[in-house]
Amino acid sequence: MSDPVRPVPQPGILDIAPYLPGKAGAPGSKAIKLSANESPLGASPKAIEAFAAAAQQLEIYPEGSSRLLREALGEVHGLDPALIVCGNGSDDLLHLLAQTYLGDGDEAVMNRYGFSVYPIITQAAGARIVMVDETDFTADVDALLAAVTPRTKVVWLANPNNPTGTYLPDAEVRRLHAALRPDILLVIDNAYAEYVTADDFTVGSDLVREADNVVMVRTFSKMGLAAARIGWMFGPAHVVDAIHRIRGPFNVNLPAQMAGAAAARDTAFTEQLKSFNAQWRDWLTAELDGNHMRVIPSQANFILVQFPDAEHAALAFTTLLERGLVVREVGASYGIQDALRISIGSEQAMRGVAGILQALVKVG
Question: What biological-process GO terms show up in the record (predicted)?
Answer without folding.
Answer: L-histidine biosynthetic process
